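Notes from the 1:1 (GR / supervisor)

We went over the backlog. Supervisor wanted to see one worked example end to end before approving the batch request, so GR pasted a single chain during the call. The sequence is below; no edits were made to it. Supervisor asked that the structure be written out right there so they could see what the output format looks like.
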Amino acid sequence: MPFTERTYRIIKEMTYPVTFKIDKNGFIILSSKIRNLLSLDHDFKENDEVSGRIYSINKSIGAFIAIDNKYDSLLRLNELQGIHIEGELIEARVKEVKSDGKIELSLRKRAYLEIDNDSDKILDYLYENDGVAYISDKSSPEKIKKLFGISKSSFKKAIGRLYKNNDIKIYTNKIELIEGKNV
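Structure output shown during the call:
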């Protein structure tokens, strides 16, 4: 693959979505420039489970993914957690299919399934920190994301469930495990 046809750094033994091209001398070469070759003509619908490889990462938009090496999709920046690289295989859920066929993905399960995971993260934190977390529904989205890796909206739903289940008390500047709930 000529340097001019690379859109990212190639790592040995990694799999990448690429295309074949013929260069000006008539030689067959590889290119990682595949966006214009991917289709938006598909049968995917909201909540379908899909897999594909990241073919481009834009630090202000997100990761572009080639589903089944055929269909273009986007995993927005706010959906990305951790470190991702081009060529990485992603298992995701179709979050939305736009009217023009563009697909947006999510790494999270549907909200009603994800709330259990979010509640468990908060309980785990409380168990590991003497039953107290100095964070509340008034805390900044950045602080919540940093501590639990979830959005403020997801955090509020999860602590709401924990409160309703009588697992925690909610104060203005902290949440606290109810006595007798410790492991």
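Supervisor's comment: The chain has a mean pLDDT of 87.
Batch request approved.
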